Structures are given as structure tokens and as C-alpha cells.
Amino acid sequence: MSTPALRLADDPSFGRPEIFHREASGHGIGGPAPKRIVVGYGFWIFLLSDVIMFSGFFAAYAVLFKNTAGGPSAHELFDLRNTAAETGCLLASSFTCGMASLAVGQRSQKWTQLALLATGLLGLAFIVLEVREFTGLIGQGAGPGRSAFLSSFFTLVGCHGVHVSAGLLWLGTMMAQFSAKGFRQDIRHRFLCFSLFWHALDIIWVAIFSLVYLVGTLPPELLP
Amino acid sequence: MSEQFEHDAGSYVGVDRVPGEPIGEERTLRLEVRGYLLGLALAVALTVASFWAVGTHEIYRPGAAVALLVLAVAQMGIHLIFFLHITTAPDNANNVLALAFGVLIVCLIVFGSLWVMGHLNHVLVPTDQLMRMQR
To answer: Distance between terminal CA atoms of chain B?
Structure first.
């Protein structure tokens, strides 16, 4: 079977804007993809590049893990109860963020604001726990300047913390915009990007708590 | 229309989906909530398993680090499926391809760095010994 070139006139939406916009697929016929798809996909690409940036910090941490310069090692420093509490906060906030996106789909102002508030409070609790942990470490002389291991640890985990803090600012903005401007299309696009960002931060935290905290607290003789 | 697009057989011409977007029209709210709850339950179970794997002697101890890596990858998969709604359907092809490329680069950076740096540690003279040799 020969495959004729796609002609413009073959496109059922040609010259019919009402179909053009409805059937737009971004796959060569029916016109460009709708704005929602373009925005969401573009933000997805950004998030993947953010993950690649984190992978650089993970690689640095993995390489420098044993370079403690005579200072404290991961095995002596990490408190797993704190890590468990942080993990719980972030996982629950990821869930409430999902609930917020369902509430936005239902156009329910009350549930959107409640779910976003819960997400924000859980995220804030995470940041408080992390700051407390960091000040505790610095207080006992295990700050980022102590060894290459601690420099890479603070860079990796701190970078995630900065992302969560930025996410909290964004979340507050979204709550204000939903209440002031309603469920306008552009606001919903912004919220879609925010929820992607928040879920991605939780995925990065899964890697951090497993590979930094849990693997770090294994007895040193068990590590390669 | 199907006749007109015969040359498109096998290629996908529908509308794409965005990651993170609830499935929407075809599913009821109850099913959506159930999906998120299932994802949460699985993620909690894998988290508990990870914390359990650190201290337990039930699993072969030298394999504990690998077990933690596997549990982490599994939980990231759960997050991608239940919270970001990544599927293998054709409307997700772009999302999955971008994700696959991201994973490839992440693996190159992490395992490449570990490989090269481990090799350098193995073959190069440590700095303090080098200083002594030059003296």
C-alpha cells in the first residue's frame, strides 16, 4: 500500500475552525495541540531537566560519601525518626495535592482551598523538620564545611528543601489566585504545573530518604 | 473519515494527555479518589518496607542496600502511575518518551560518575602518598 503525502485538504478540519480547535491533536493534523497540552508538556520537560540536575548532586554525594576527612559519617549522624516524619509529611502532602487537583476538576472552591491548605501545612511541617535537622547538625560541628561528604549532603538535601520552599510560595499564590480569579483556564494551567512540581518533589524525596538516609545508616561494612 | 485517513493506520491521531492531570470525563470522582488512595496505600507500604529493611535480619544483610534501591525505584513507579497518571496508552507516548530519555541521562550521570571515580580511586596514587614521593 502506498502512503500518499498528507495533504492539507485531507484534513477534515481544513477551513472549519470549529473542528480545527476541537480535534487539534498536535500530531500533524487538526492543528497545533491545545494550550493545556503545550503548557503541561513543556513543564514536564522542565521537571525532567530538574531531575537531571538532582542526579548530578546525587552522583557527587555517592562519589564523596566516604570522604569524611576524619569527621562524622552518615552512620553516626542520621536520625531515622526525623526522616520518617519528613517522609510522612511529604507523602501526605502529595496525596492532598492530588485531592486539590480533583477539587479543581469539580470547580469546588471550598475543597480546593482546604486541600491546598493541607498541602501547604504538611509542606511547611517538612521544612520545619528539615531546618531543625540542619541546625542540629551544624550545632554539633557537622556543618557543610566539615568534610566533602557533608558538603555534598547539604547541597543535595538543601537543594530539595529550597525547591519545597519555592513550592510553598507557589502554593500560596495558587490559593490566592483561585480565590481572587476563580477557576479561569490560565489559572488551572498554572495549577496543573504546580501539582506536577509538587509530585515530582516527592519523587525526588523518595530517592533522598532511601539512598541518602536509609542506605547511609546501614552499618559501614555492609556498603560496597 | 476512517477511509480518508487510511494512510494513518497504526499512528495515533487523538488528543494527548498531560502528566498529573486526573483522567476526568470517563471516570467518576469516586474512582479518581480511590486511585489516589490506592497510590497512597502502596507508597506507604513501600516506605514502611524500606525503613524495615534497614534494621531487619530477615533479608541477606549485604543485599540491604540493593533492596533499598529496588524499593525506592518501585515507589517512584507508584508515584508516576497513581499521582502523575503516566500510562502506556498512545495519548501518553510523548510523556513516556521524555521520561525515558530523562531516566537514561540520570543513569548515565550517576553510574558513569561512580564508575569513573571508582576507577580513578583504584588506579591513581592517593594525594598524600604522591606528596611524599615528590619530596
So the answer is: 84
